[in-house]
Specification:
The complex is a heterodimer of chains A (295) and B (650).
Chain A lengths: L1 H31 L6 H17 L4 H24 L7 H22 L5 E2 L9 E4 L2 E4 H23 L1 H11 L1 H6 L4 H27 L1 E2 L3 H16 L4 H21 L8 H15 L8 H4 L2
Antiparallel strand pairs in A: 1-4, 2-3
Chain B lengths: L7 H22 L3 H27 L5 H17 L2 H7 L14 H23 L4 H21 L1 H4 L14 H19 L2 H11 L1 H6 L4 H27 L9 H14 L4 H22 L3 E2 L2 E2 L6 H16 L10 H13 L27 H9 L6 E10 L2 E11 L4 E5 L6 H8 L7 E6 L2 E2 L5 H7 L1 E3 L12 H15 L7 H7 L15 H14 L4 E5 L7 H18 L2 E5 L3 H7 L2 E6 L2 E6 L1 H6 L1 H13 L3 H23 L1
Parallel strand pairs in B: 5-10, 5-11, 8-9, 9-10
Antiparallel strand pairs in B: 1-2, 3-4, 3-6, 6-7, 11-12
Helix pairs in contact in B: 1-2, 1-8, 1-13, 2-8, 2-11, 2-12, 2-13, 3-5, 3-6, 3-11, 5-11, 8-11, 9-11, 9-19, 12-13, 12-14, 13-14, 19-20, 19-21, 23-26, 25-26
The chains are: A mainly alpha (295), B alpha/beta (650).
Chain lengths: 295, 650
């Protein structure tokens, strides 16, 4: 019973980070139809910004704020420098460009910072553990779940209660119509990138609190997990992506806990078999926007 | 089969490209053992990249899975050809007695290509049914699954550690031989019947279906062919290295090969080769720099990952500034032509719109205009209709776009479909040509129910169409645009097949035949689109707003042209247009659609007298409170219509 609860808690924590990742990817995809491989690099950049602030002996909270700011700025820079010039190119071209950014950023970190992993220590208080009904609950895991919940709530409120949020939701439905109504496309797209950067930053802080170190290529595997979450939830569907992220967290926890030990290496492979099967059965989850489907 | 088409130009182009690359590789290879190794790796990369390019470039679907195929082929040949003594230590528990088997290297390579191709053929069944991004992500999944299997199926592959002891047999010469075979074979694919179809589907899938192209099937052929040659490269690669590990066939190789593809130009084999050479040179230079060389008294620091970083820079730069790569879709012989033109300057002035004669300039013999009455008589004499649409309806999210519509089209007649915006005219055309499937009712073409047939099948039965916004294959030449349809006719409608050049002449397109369709002025693109539909040898031709954007003179020419098409092809024509004079003049019978329903039908004269029609066209303006004036102008426009009609009748 306790192991089950423990696994559920594990799944929830893991799923939280994946949900934030997937939501950030979905946010940009829903508006621009860009499959952004470079989203994982926002996490890496946030982490390296925190690393830099650590070496400046700044307090932990400054690392966090600096990291989040770096992720948002990086996301905006990507949009402005790389994706805006090719906004009207095919989704495949944009995807290839984002892959180029992934390579560019991760290998820059490797070449100019360090090829090796670097530690980012957590404040002591985070490692506190409670005993709840015989169940060991790490404070950090509770925090992860709470922060994720608050972030999701924030995004929800932004999308529902603000004008720019409404414009973003409308743009995801039919960008051309929104543009005709006088909403500035640049602003909607930039906001969605900024928001996806912020989500990546939050995810990075949470992931670092578990892993404790950064590597130049951490973004690549993370972004793949973000894609899986999106495919499960239907790419471009924001809340589907969140759900997909949580499901992925649970699936991974279950695989790791219950696959026979000589099979546990297959976890990754199995997850991507699921992705392939979903896409083969329901390719329309990735369909082009409605306006493009018109003949 | 139509998979390969031998032309001397393409063959020589392929050979020359190989000789150039081979010469460079051989020259570089004289610089010592390590340089020869680099040159050989470059040639093997060229085999793999050209192999990948044949699918990616022709279909427009980016595949990451080919890196997985390289890995599978390398491992299969390694497992089959390594000496038993080695295998006893690397993979002692291999299934099927593989641990004690040792095949000669050529046989092992053949087997590797066969196994990989078979696996790709199975995966391709699913991938080739999917489009764009979804297909790319599935190929990515394939790569990750392959990698996971290579790492974890330890009994067979030896796991994440190196599989060593593979006989080293590949040298620069064998690699070049492999490249020559790959390039020549794949160059001959590009201009073959299937190759043309894959490229057409890349350019515009909807248009490709509308002329009867089986998009998935032709894409599948490209996929299998492409996997086969990529596998050849992978197998040769294993026999060059002697030791392989799963990590070799993962993200780094993927990044490298995508950079090579993007730099040279994804649409051409020559581009792929250029990309391989340039990226190899850049990446070797940076590797040297990254190793911390000492130049004079200057000691450079050691930097890890510098050459990989360059792949990222190359990809980003090219995707933003030159998405077509250095060569675009040019092959070596076209580059040669281009260089010659630049030096000569006087050769072949690119013909302009003005040079092209008006559409449908037909040999004089058939220009005689048969009296319209004779042709419309089919409708009156009780002949069987060629197309019967009965009570057809379709709704989108609650909106009844077409609602209980019935129309009949008789052989050889020119039928007009008019109505205000949003009346459902184009939707009806899409229903007839199979792009949409009706929710209710039935569509019969030549006595056969086609309600649920795919567009491609309906086109092959003899329904050609054009689109409201012209949908050509922009990167294909005008001749190729028309040829796609004429080849479909050759295969499925041999009784009406005509050679592509005959149709090019019929439409007066000789001067622009070799130009890319996307570079032509709008008016000529329209002509090419009609020529393409006609090349299908249709019994029914659907024209969606052929007169849109034409001026008065052009629209009169168009009237003649459409009539001639009907007279030459003996086909029925169903057309939509907003230009009432044009429609009234050209059509022998009209249907009027409003809000998804047929509100009137009859001869142009009957329609012009119909009160309901006037109402439908003006209803909204009446509501705006300007009935008198607008009513007058409508009558005027109808009047113009009949005036134009009488003019041409004389």
């Amino acid at each position: 019973m306790n192991t089950l609860l423990q696994q559920i808690l594990n799944g929830l924590t893991l799923g939280s980070t994946y949900a934030l990742l997937a939501l950030g990817i979905a946010m940009v995809f829903s508006i621009l139809h860009l499959v952004n491989f470079a989203h994982g690099e926002l996490i890496a950049l946030c982490a390296y910004a925190m690393l830099g602030l650590r070496y400046l002996n700044a307090p932990w909270i400054v690392w966090v704020i600096g990291g989040l700011a770096a992720a948002v700025v990086a996301a905006l820079a990507m949009e402005r420098l790389a994706f805006r010039p090719i906004r009207h190119a095919s989704p495949v071209s944009m995807m290839v460009a984002s892959l180029g950014l992934l390579i560019l950023i991760s290998f820059s970190l490797e070449a100019f910072v360090s090829p090796r992993a670097r530690a980012i220590p957590q404040p002591e208080w985070m490692n506190r553990v409670f005993l709840v009904g015989g169940l060991q609950v790490g404070l950090k895991y509770v925090l992860i779940i709470v922060v994720t919940g608050l972030s999701l709530l924030g995004v929800l409120l932004l999308l529902r209660r603000t004008i720019i949020g409404t414009a973003m939701r409308a743009a995801a439905e039919d960008f051309d119509a929104v543009r005709l109504m006088g909403v500035r496309a640049d602003r909607v797209i930039a906001t969605s990138f900024a928001l996806s950067g912020l989500l990546a930053g939050i995810a990075a802080v949470l992931i670092l609190s578990i892993r404790g170190s950064v590597t130049p290529h951490m973004g690549f595997s993370l972004v793949l997990y973000g894609f899986i979450g999106n495919v499960i939830g239907g790419l471009g569907n924001l809340w589907g992506a969140v759900l997909g992220g949580f499901l992925l967290g649970f699936a991974e926890t279950i695989f790791r806990a219950f696959l026979p030990s000589n099979m546990s290496g297959f976890t990754n492979g199995l997850l991507f078999v699921i992705v392939a099967v979903i896409l083969v059965l329901r390719p329309q989850v990735l369909m082009a926007p409605k306006s493009a489907a018109r003949v | 089969m139509g998979i390969f088409k031998f032309t001397r130009r393409n063959f020589i182009g392929g050979v020359v490209a190989c000789v150039l690359l081979g010469g460079a590789a051989l020259l570089y290879g004289t610089g010592g053992v390590s340089m020869r190794h680099i040159a050989t790796v470059m040639v093997l990369n060229a085999i793999m990249v050209v192999g990948t390019q044949v699918f990616v470039g022709h279909s427009g679907v980016l595949s990451f899975g080919h890196i997985g195929f390289v890995g599978i082929a390398a491992y299969v040949t390694a497992i089959l050809s390594a000496p038993a003594a080695v295998k006893q230590t690397v993979i002692p528990h291999a299934p099927l007695g593989l641990a004690s088997l040792q095949l000669p290297v050529p046989l092992a390579i053949l087997a590797a290509v066969a196994v990989t191709t078979a696996i790709a053929a199975i995966i391709g069944l699913f991938i080739c049914r999917m489009n764009g991004i979804a297909a790319s992500i599935v190929t990515f999944a394939v790569l990750i699954v392959v990698n996971s299997v290579l790492i974890n199926w330890k009994d067979l592959t030896g796991g994440a550690e190196a599989f060593y002891g593979i006989p080293v047999k590949t040298n620069l010469y064998w690699a070049l031989l492999g490249l020559l075979a790959t390039v020549v074979v794949l160059r001959l694919f590009t201009y073959s019947r299937v190759g043309l179809r894959v490229r057409a589907s890349r350019e515009d899938e909807v248009a490709a279906r509308s002329i009867g192209i089986g998009v998935h099937r032709s894409r599948y052929v490209a996929w299998v062919l492409s996997a086969m040659f990529t596998a050849l490269g992978g197998a040769l690669f294993a026999h060059l290295l002697g030791a392989i590990a799963p990590a070799l066939f993962y993200e780094n190789l993927m990044f490298l090969q995508i950079a090579m593809l993007v730099l040279g130009g994804i649409f051409s084999v020559t581009g792929a080769l250029v990309g391989v050479v340039v990226v190899t040179v850049i990446s070797e230079a940076l590797r040297w720099l990254g190793d911390g060389p000492q130049i004079g008294s200057l000691q450079f620091p050691m930097i890890v990952g510098l050459s990989s970083l360059a792949y990222g820079v190359i990809i980003v730069i090219f995707m933003i500034w030159r998405p077509g790569g250095l060569l675009g879709d040019r092959e070596i012989e076209e580059v040669w032509d281009w260089l010659k033109r630049r030096r000569g300057k006087d050769t072949v002035p690119v013909s302009t719109a003005a040079a092209a004669p008006p559409m449908g300039a037909v040999p004089a013999a058939i220009t005689a205009d048969p009296p319209a009455s004779q042709l419309t008589s089919a409708r009156r004499s009780g002949a069987k209709p060629i197309l019967v649409v009965s009570s057809v309806g379709i709704h989108f999210a609650g909106l009844r776009a077409v609602d209980d519509v019935s129309i009949e089209v008789y052989p050889g007649e020119i039928l007009g479909l008019i109505g205000p915006n949003g009346a459902g005219k184009t939707t009806l055309l899409n229903l007839i040509s199979g792009l949409y499937t009706a929710n209710s009712g039935e569509i019969m073409f030549q006595g056969r129910t086609v309600t649920h047939l795919a567009p491609m099948k309906i086109a092959r039965l003899g329904v050609g169409r054009t689109f409201q916004t012209t949908r050509l294959f922009p990167l294909l030449s005008v001749r190729e645009n028309v040829e796609t349809a004429s080849q479909v006719a050759q295969q499925y409608r041999p009784q009406v097949y005509r050679h592509v050049d005959e149709i090019i002449v019929q439409f007066g397109l000789q001067d622009v035949a070799q130009r890319k369709a996307g570079t032509l002025p709008f008016g000529i693109q329209r002509q090419v689109e009609i020529a393409r539909a006609v090349a299908l040898g249709p019994d029914l031709l659907l024209l969606d707003e052929p007169a849109a954007g034409t001026n008065e003179v052009e629209s009169l020419q168009l009237i003649d042209a459409v009539r001639r098409v009907r007279d030459v092809e003996k086909c029925a024509i169903l057309l939509i247009d907003h230009d009432l004079p044009f429609v009234m003049n050209l059509c022998e019978h009209l249907y009027v659609l409003d809000a998804g329903k047929v509100i009137a039908e009859g001869s142009p004269d009957e329609i012009q007298a119909d009160e309901k029609v006037k109402e439908a066209y003006l209803g909204t303006q009446k509501a705006a409170g300007a009935e008198e004036r607008k009513g007058g102008s409508a009558a005027e426009s109808f009047g113009q219509g009949s005036a134009a009609a009488s003019r041409s009748d004389v």
